[in-house]
Amino acid sequence: MKKFLSLVLALVMTMSLVTVSAGAKDFTDNDKITYDEAVAVMSAAKVIDGYAEGDFRPTNTLTRGAAAKIICNLILGPTTASALVADSAPYKDVPTNSTFAGYIAYCQKEGIISGYADGTFKSGNTLTGYAFMKMLLGALGYDSAIEGYTGANWSIAVAKQAINAGLKGSFNGTKAVTREEACLYAFNTLKATMVEYDNRIVVGEGSSAVAISGVRKDLTWNKGTLNDGKIKKDGYVQFGEQYFEKLVRTDDTDDFGRPASKWTYDKKDIGTYVNYDLLVSEYTTKVEGGDVYSDIGSVAADYDLTYWVDGVKMNAKDTKTQSSQIAKKNDDKMGGSGKGALTQIFVDNDAEETTIVEINTYLAETDDYNEKKETLKFNEIYGYGSVDDVELDDIASIKDYKDGDMVLLTIADGEVKTIVPAETVKDVEIEEFSKHDYVKVDGKKETYDYAKTGALKASLGYEVLSNYDKNNLDDTTFKLYLDQYGYLIGIEEVDADEQYVFITAYEKTTSTITRKLTDANAIFADGTQKTIKVDLKKSFENTYVDNNKKEQPIYDNWEKDGEETLNQWFKYTVKDDTYRLEYATKQFRDNRVVTIDSKHPAQKAVNVNLAHVNYTEAVANYFYYGNADTTYITVNVDELNKKAVIDDVESVVTGIKNVSIDVYSEDQVKKEAETANADSQGVFSVYKKGYVVASIVIGDDGATSNKFAYLYDEPENERYSKTDKAYYWTMNAVIDGVKTTITFKSDLPYDDNFAEDLYKVSYDKDGYATDATVAKHGTDYVWVDEYRDDPTAKDIVKSTFGTQSQPAVDLTADGDTLWITSQGTNRGIVLADSCPAVIVEQKQDKNGNWVADKTVDYASVAKAIKALDNYDGKGVKNFDGTIIVTLKDGIATSVILTDTVEKVNHKKEDTVAGVTASLSVKNGDLTLNVAGMTASDKVSYKVVATDIRSQNSAVVNNGTVTADGDKTVLDAFQMDATMAYSVEVTVNGKTMTVSL
Prior knowledge:
The chain is mainly β. The protein is built from 15 helices and 62 strands. Helix 3 (64-76) packs parallel to helix 6.
């Protein structure tokens, strides 16, 4: 089927090459520019330029004043145009000192622009496509009065003339013009022919003179002029030939052989761009000779034919063969056309030439980008031979690719010209396939036709399916790669990426009908945890040899009622929402490991004789290492039937460089589960080629920087997602000395169980907090004196002073050391460089509880201490708040201090000029009471709301008072519990402030 694409689709979907030479502007946002040829030429000619920051901002709208400047730059050149001045104001709102006054005055004088009926120009307003086209037509010589660009229907006349002149094929004339659209219209003006008038009749004199009639004709050159041909050699005067002698357009071809325009300015290359004005039709499927004949017509069928395939010009013999196929109703296929192969047909009637270009798309796998050489090579290009490495100067996006990325390439004469990521359809099952034609996806019922370069191609084409039939396609998943037109260009079996799940426990159903199913607690290799249904009959199809040397089916070994501490890794597939398991043979347990971090990446296969897995491939006492792709999942244990049962996922971290895990010893597991046996102690890992894929760790992940958070204030923004079947809400927090927010995700709504305190937070793989428990003394943190006795005890020190057990202390921070209490006691903590600190200011609420009033962060602990109450110039005396210090290798990385703020005695009543004002809250409304007014008093008010956390203030209401009495100044529904309110009352110019 033939596909006609718009200009934008032709530029984007077909990945057309644009060769931009050194003379063209290299804007930082080039990738956001649609009309790159127009922007490049206009910026090279200095008609329009980018911003000082180096970007162009193509979608910003154009103002009327800026449009006048563009017109002047077009006609006069930027140097002359910049010297324009206005001797008098051209419009009443355009003074002579206005930035655009000179440009507007010139355009007005030349009859190119006009203002509004009220005598204004409104240079800061945007202008529509019609208005800008009218200005450009004026620059080309079209007379506004003669052509009918006035009156109620002026825009219709402008649109018709703009299309005829070639300024724009179609456009939304009522929409504001963007900067890049302005470039496109101005660029088309450069290529347009100028006009003049014979028998011109002018009415009036001077500035009021108006032409009312005349015969328009195209402006021609005097014979032999040198300028004719700088844009188009046709004997007529194109705008660019008249005003831009240094700008030259020459006919050329791009790297694929397509007719193109090569632009230079002052003998410097701007770039070479496909001439889409000559594009007649294009296809992305098989092309028949009869189709081509229908599209180009009988006349063009006799033109000289040039035929290109992937940037290589066909020889005369092959070209002649293709030319003979362009015949009426001929169903022979043209060249190498096919699904996913772009075939474009260009016809140049002036030169009597027809050009057919085929551009194939190839699937390729990248190697890592070489930063030193600034090059990218490919591990393989499917259906094509080798190519040279791609250089960064040619394609800037290559720096974003890494080893194994699947991409789509276009190649011209052996050189890669474009690279884009391949669209991927992941984890699908194939219901049906044809050797030559298509693949049908199970479930989605979608059918993908083979791309020409994708069918029957090596390891990523039909050969992947050659070993499958209707009997063994079941349960096999594939990854499909599509080209930019939606055709199937590659198939990959997903088996290479085995899916793992860790089963901690299972419980069989008791129904006879459903006994083949069991519920299992599953933790997936990405850290997701949920209960799944396991199909025992379809699982464990292999067998094992029992103690009597008899072969037994493995699933029979799952206990009748279930198991709380199974703790084994499995490979899995999913069918109809039930899981089919297979023991992961490459797994082991290490119950001796103490630490996992970048200094200790190894785990030792101590226990490889897992129950029912006597065919394990793990080798006892061999080491297996974590790498950048390893997922470490720390979990909690709980007591159940005197066993330590793995309970919840605590944290999920990817990469050995990002973890610092203290693995629980047997005693720690018992302590965590109180009296349980340590059945779950250690690390359970699954590996591949000697590297750990994922580890379930019974331990404490100290590397998760956001594991401990100081939570305060009430939860906010609670919502429920029907899609996720989960509740979300946010809480204010201090983490690592930085104020932030945490987003919680739960299958239950928020329950008011958060007090202002330090919490141990658990996160899922997506970074959502799933649980928060108050940090425990001894387990999560130690007191100052305990840290003094054993600086390796914990990485968090938390103490609340001003109590009987821990009296008030003095604080001093100087020279990167924090002293807690007097110099006579060893309570010093070393501070990291620029260790941040946060002060949480607390005040008593109406119930007498101390709650956060506001939080203030400081760049250093010393600055925070200076801001505390009782600071005497040397330090803080008798500090009676809470101090929380986070440490790494014995050095403090952040500090949180709480400071109690005395209740402020607000001024509830005041009197100015004999008028008394006071505030009260009645029925939830904020009410102002005014007394003592006389008839001559002028009284007004402003309600000021102050955020008690950020201390930011804003006026939320205002008005006047006309007589004594109560006046509601803020309704209950307008009041916010997080705000403190005061009212400024002004009496005859004098102001007083009253507050609650």
